[in-house]
Amino acid sequence: MKCDRCGREIPDDSNYCPYCGARIGGRWEEFQVEAEGLVAKVKQLLREGNVRRIVVRNPEGKILLEIPVTIGAIGALIAPYLAALGAIAALVSNCTIAVERRE
Ligand SMILES: [Zn+2]
């Protein structure tokens, strides 16, 4: 199977990814987005409110940015991440957003 966070192949019975340490078995979703839609998509996900973690990967699977979303982190604390997303969007043409939902 594949790790939901970093996308690497890992043993089927893993509880944690040996590469990136992500917990396996959380509720993850993936979205493929064009660079110009990246910031808007992340803002939309943050508004949905049940997001624990957002990971942005380039098409080669490299993690470009990880946003640990804690309750109350929407607003000022998230602004630097949105600025970083804007910088990423200028560098890539498309990317993958992996989202871990709260149970
Ligand atoms: Zn991993």
Question: What would you note in describing this structure?
Answer:
- It is a single chain.
- The chain is α+β, with helices and mostly antiparallel strands and 103 residues long.
- It contains two helices and four strands.
- Strand 2 and strand 3 form a beta hairpin.
- Helix 1 packs antiparallel against helix 2.
- The structure holds zinc ion.
List keywords for this structure.
103 residues; four-stranded antiparallel beta sheet; 23% helix; globular; binds zinc ion
TL;DR?
By secondary structure, the protein is α+β, with helices and mostly antiparallel strands.
Structural class, by secondary structure, is alpha+beta
Number of helices: 2
**Beta-strand proportion:** 25-35%
Query: What would you report as the Rg, rounded to the nearest angstrom?
Result: 13 Å
Q: What is the string of SSEs from the N terminus onward?
A: EHEEHE
The portion of residues assigned to helices is 10-25%
Low-confidence blocks of residues: none
Question: Topology of this structure?
Answer:
Blueprint: E1 27-34, H1 38-48, E2 51-57, E3 63-68, H2 79-91, E4 94-101
Bound molecules: zinc ion (ZN).
